[in-house]
Amino acid sequence: MSDALIPPSFLFRLAVPCYRYEGSWTKSGVKLTEKHVITSFDAELNLGPRFAELRLGWNEEGIYVHLRTTDKKQSPWCRDTRLDDSDGLSLMIDTRNTQTIHRAGRFCHRFIMLPQGSGRLLDQPTITLTEIQRAKEQPKPASDKDLMIKSEKRIDGYILQAFIRAEAITGFDPDEHPRLGFSYAIVDRELGWQTFSLDPSFPITHDPSLWGTLVLQ
């Protein structure tokens, strides 16, 4: 991380393209390509950690996620009863791209995805739409049938794949609103936080004014 008092990424209103995915969710997950990679401006501009590759795609059915972590020597620590303390991915989405407010509204979402931590042996993945702190209003609840996830252990990390159906994303309308407020945080007790633009010293999980923009291509 940079020693600058104000991180360079804080000075810009950041936007990235999210390319359409022509496939659909299957038992084997999704097949997103290199064009679907979402960068980390915190790593590029602020010299923050980079230990994972995040790919996102979209179509009218919803949003597709592929995450690959590397450089790990320890197993991820995950508990579905302690989502904020667990290793995994937080995906923040605002379907109205309202970047002038500090408190989230009903179009703002925080999806948390864990590679394990559920089930009797705590070896099953978890995906959930969780409440955003200090939000003025929460989005509609997401049904379990609208949130799909699978994970795979690797010797140096894990692969996590997920599908968030449009029905789980309040206000999702790519034709009318192709620009989404967006941020992400890949949390790892061993390696730190890899984020979209700012490190966790900023309230990136619940302040939409700190999010960038995801442009649906």
Descriptive labels:
globular, mainly beta, 3% helix, 217 residues
What does this structure look like?
The structure is a single chain. The chain is mainly β. It has a single domain (8-25, 32-216), classed as Immunoglobulin-like. It has one helix spanning 41-46, and strands at 15-18, 37-38, 52-59, 62-69, 88-94, 108-118, 124-130, 147-154, 157-165, 179-188, 192-195, 212-216. Strands 1, 5, 6, 7, 10, 11 and 12 form a 7-stranded mixed beta sheet that branches. The radius of gyration is 16 Å and the shape is globular. The chain starts with 14 loop residues before the first strand and ends with a strand.
CATH architecture: Sandwich
First CA to last CA: what distance? 31 Å
Quaternary:
single chain
Q: Give the C-alpha Rg.
A: 16 Å
Overall tally of domains: 1
The total of helices stands at: 1
Main structural class: mainly beta
User: What is the strand content?
Assistant: 35-45%
The main pleated sheet reads as: 7 strands, mixed
Overall pLDDT metric: 96
SSE ordering: EEHEEEEEEEEEE
The helical percent reads under 10%
What's the CATH class, please?
A: Mainly Beta
Dominant shape: globular
Number of strands: 12
Q: What's the CATH topology name?
A: Immunoglobulin-like
Low-confidence stretches: none
